[in-house]
Automatic annotation (TrEMBL):
<keyword id="KW-1003">Cell membrane</keyword>
<keyword id="KW-0479">Metal-binding</keyword>
<dbReference type="GO" id="GO:0016682">
    <property type="term" value="F:oxidoreductase activity, acting on diphenols and related substances as donors, oxygen as acceptor"/>
</dbReference>
<feature type="transmembrane region" description="Helical">
    <location>
        <begin position="390"/>
        <end position="412"/>
    </location>
</feature>
<dbReference type="GO" id="GO:0005886">
    <property type="term" value="C:plasma membrane"/>
</dbReference>
<dbReference type="GO" id="GO:0020037">
    <property type="term" value="F:heme binding"/>
</dbReference>
<feature type="transmembrane region" description="Helical">
    <location>
        <begin position="310"/>
        <end position="330"/>
    </location>
</feature>
<dbReference type="GO" id="GO:0019646">
    <property type="term" value="P:aerobic electron transport chain"/>
</dbReference>
<feature type="transmembrane region" description="Helical">
    <location>
        <begin position="84"/>
        <end position="106"/>
    </location>
</feature>
<dbReference type="Pfam" id="PF01654">
    <property type="entry name" value="Cyt_bd_oxida_I"/>
</dbReference>
<feature type="transmembrane region" description="Helical">
    <location>
        <begin position="342"/>
        <end position="363"/>
    </location>
</feature>
<keyword id="KW-0812">Transmembrane</keyword>
<dbReference type="GO" id="GO:0009055">
    <property type="term" value="F:electron transfer activity"/>
</dbReference>
<keyword id="KW-0472">Membrane</keyword>
<keyword id="KW-0349">Heme</keyword>
<feature type="transmembrane region" description="Helical">
    <location>
        <begin position="118"/>
        <end position="141"/>
    </location>
</feature>
<keyword id="KW-1133">Transmembrane helix</keyword>
Length: 433
């Protein structure tokens, strides 16, 4: 529970750390190229919010690093030498991001504009690299490689093989795209809320259009990657796919189930598309899809949360795709935002919805692997710390995250309500009382 809360909280900040630098640097580049002051003001404002979120994310990330050793000694003691390389590389990426973010923030008016713009590029690259290295560890937990077991002891460690395991390409791309979607829809939601209150100037229109367009363009690509990942699971982690679909029996001509609740060993109240799951997995109706009955009951994940979270993630993804298509069709017809206020209302909801899709996706990934922390090698029960009294750490972590949440919301709200100035006016003037 402590790890779930910590990871679920930190991953939101991590997404903004991955996606927000690219949006900020692009806005600044666009402003320098066109001379449009609105882009420069947006970049200036987003850079400050980015600094706040990075600082808070550094705190929650540090907590997670301690929890890996404290809460999971069975995992780290046995396999720490296998997964140490990506964690070390992530540390280098973090420090590069921190150094260049500091330069980018505090050298805004102290360097020539184009040179200052270049200092933001390492922040973009390092943020994506950090996500890649961390998620490659999780991919390894789903497809462990790069070691030999000799009488129960790990030998012959091959760290590069472990990091670039079969699950790494799809899982890392899926997460990085999700990060850009969370950042894009999240930022757009703020400006959509302002436009609902009557702020229809160019600054707010671009503040909505730029991140929303980036996130909407990524959404169909993300759906394709998600489909490929599900097909990968059918061959490499079929029990997880069976839980995601609520499929109890192995068979061919398997229907694709939409919605439903898994009760008494079967999926009830779902909408079924005939043969669709077999076609998606093997491109023909006769494809055999493995069900939960292929493994002992002790090796099955809890189906209800996995199935429901997967359905929520897919539903939100399709909803965001339709919202992006709405804007795309309207822009193609008359180069403008949709006139309906419902578009702005749904854009406001798209920010929280993207976060919910992110969290439910991670629940699907983690709970769907149970009861294994390292797939078919180490059970979660054998990896977790058995020491009594760990509940105290959960209480402390909850208190820390409550304080961090309140402080973050307060500071971001202060940034939101401050006067929007041009970058040339500097930082001191904007923060002056």
């Amino acid at each position: 529970m402590q790890m779930a809360i910590s990871l679920g909280w930190h991953i939101i900040l991590a997404c903004f750390g991955v996606g927000m630098p690219a949006l900020t640097v692009f806005a600044q580049w666009r402003g320098l190229r066109t001379g449009d002051e609105a882009y420069e003001r947006l970049a200036h404002r987003w850079a400050k919010a980015m600094g706040v979120l990075f600082a808070v994310g550094a705190v929650s990330g540090t907590i997670l690093s301690f929890e890996m050793g404290l809460l999971w000694p069975g995992l780290m003691a046995t396999y720490g030498q296998v997964i140490g390389l990506p964690f070390a590389l992530e540390g280098f990426a973090f420090f590069i991001e921190a150094v260049f973010l500091g330069i980018y923030l505090y050298a805004w008016n102290r360097l020539p504009p184009r040179l200052h713009l270049l200092t933001g590029l390492p922040v973009c690259v390092a943020g994506v690299a950090s996500a890649f290295f961390v998620v490659s560890v999780n991919a390894w937990m789903n497809q462990p490689r790069g070691f030999d077991l000799t009488n129960g002891t790990v030998t012959g460690v091959r760290p590069w093989e472990a990091m670039f395991n079969p699950a790494t390409p799809l899982q890392t791309v899926h997460m990085i795209l999700a990060a850009f979607m969370v950042a894009g829809f999240g930022i757009a939601a703020v400006y959509a809320a302002a436009m609902l209150r009557g702020r229809r100037d160019r600054y707010h229109r671009i503040g909505l259009l730029l991140p929303f367009t980036a996130a909407a363009a990524i959404t169909p690509v993300q759906i394709v990657i998600g489909d490929s990942l599900a097909r990968f699971l059918a061959h490499h982690q079929p029990t997880k796919l069976a839980a995601m679909e609520g499929l109890n029996r192995t068979s061919s001509h398997v229907d694709l189930s939409l919605g439903g609740v898994y009760l008494d060993g079967r999926l009830r109240y779902a909408l079924h598309i005939p043969d669709a799951l077999s076609i998606l997995v093997g491109f023909r109706p006769s494809t055999v899809v493995q069900g939960l009955d292929a493994v002992p009951a002790a090796d099955r994940p809890p189906v209800t949360p996995v199935h429901l979270c997967f359905q929520v993630m897919v539903a939100i993804g399709l909803g965001l795709l339709l919202l992006g298509l709405w804007l795309g069709l309207t822009w193609w017809r008359r180069r403008d935002l949709p006139r309906s206020r419902w578009f702005l209302r749904l854009t406001v909801l798209s920010g929280p919805a993207a976060v919910v899709a992110l969290e439910t996706g991670w629940i699907t990934t983690e709970v769907g692997r149970q009861p294994w922390v390292v797939w078919r090698h180490l059970r979660t029960a054998d990896a977790v710390n058995p020491a009594p009294g760990l509940w105290a750490g959960l209480v402390v972590v909850l208190a820390v995250y409550v304080v961090l949440t309140v402080a973050t919301v307060y500071v971001l709200n202060r940034l939101r309500t401050q006067r929007v100035t041009a970058p040339q006016e500097g930082w001191a003037e904007e923060f002056a009382p």
